[in-house]
Structure formats: structure tokens, C-alpha cells
Amino acid sequence: xxxxxxxxxxxxxxxxxxxxxxxxxxxxxxxxxxxxxxxxxxxxxxxxxxxxxxxxxxxxxxxxxxxxxxxxxxxxxxxxxxxxxxxxxxxxxxxxxxxxxxxxxxxxxxxxxxxxxxxxxxxxxxxxxxxxxxxxxxxxxxxxxxxxxxxxxxxxxxxxxxxxxxxxxxxxxxxxxxxxxxxxxxxxxxxxxxxxxxxxxxxxxxxxxxxxxxxxxxxxxxxxxxx
Length: 227
What we know:
The protein contains four helices and 13 strands.
């Protein structure tokens, strides 16, 4: 799963990168985004007939939920079932988005401790496949799609975000389309740009934030075993 990630670009930066109009101020840069936090996303606005940079609460809240707390359990949607899940299918068909990220975190247990890892493509912004909805017409919420981990990333976790390259942004945002094509994972060769970086355990505490969370640290028991 993807339960923590970093996203640090301003709405102006995101607008330029994704050729989108900012309709909401992006949340403050965060190197430790946690479930229910506000996050930036890119979606198509029918009213504007254009891509827009918007803000949503991370954790999709289905329309039947009685309160927003339900979203804490729905931060991820599995690519294998998103098209048929009662909670996600409607958004998958009509309300898809891109969730920009600098990188994401996972943990590997080493004996009695857990080693944190940060996956990133230095110098680039990753576009996670996402879906969104409006809860009771007033709160936008979203989920990040995950797929089976590929290549060396399997040594960190068996799941990873579904990352979309630039040429797949337009069909993803357009709505409709063939699920098999929309949900296909990146070729393993494309993952060579992703660096797997051991980092300090501080990211495990949601109160910690800042670029120091992504600084490489030695991982004594795992170093050199991921690839």
C-alpha cells in the first residue's frame, strides 16, 4: 500500500507541469503526508473545460458514509478491483485524477525493528493514478490506486502506487476507456529511474516533517539486498 508520501510543489509549479489552471491553493509542502491530510491533485473541470489543480482530503469517502472518518481506511484503491468495487467504481469511470508526489515511503521489518525506505525519481514529479469524489457536495476526497510491485520494489513491499507516465495522463483524466489499458502497470524498465533510499525512522511519526525525512541513511541489515 501507499500510506505515506511526500508532495512539495506549489500550485504554480503543478500548473506548469500538468498544463493545468490552479483553482485552489495547494497545501503547504509536506514530506510526510498521512491519511486524511489535504493533498493537491489534478483533475478535469467540466465547467472550465480544462485541467485544474485542486485540493482534496486523502481517503475517499463513499456517498453512503455517515462521516469523513471512513476515508482513513480508503486512502488506496486496488487497481485489480477499482472498476468493480461499490466504493470506487463510479469515481473510476467518471472522476479520475493525478496525484503528484515527490516519492512515497514503505517499511521493511528487520528483526524487531522496521527500516523505512523512500522511493523517488530524483528531479522528477511522480503522477500517481487517483480517483476523487465529493462527499455530501461539500468535501472533495480522493484515493491513490495501487498495483502489484514490480522488479526490485518487491523487496520493499508487495504493492506500489500505479504511476502514470506523461503520455497516459490525458486518457486517464478523460474518463471512460478500457480498464485493462488504463490500469496497466509501468514497464519494469521504466522503474529504473526510481531510487530506493533507506531513511530515518522519523517519518513514522506524523508530527515530523521536513526534507530531512528523505535524506539517505545507512540500512545496516538491508543495504545492497534490494536489487
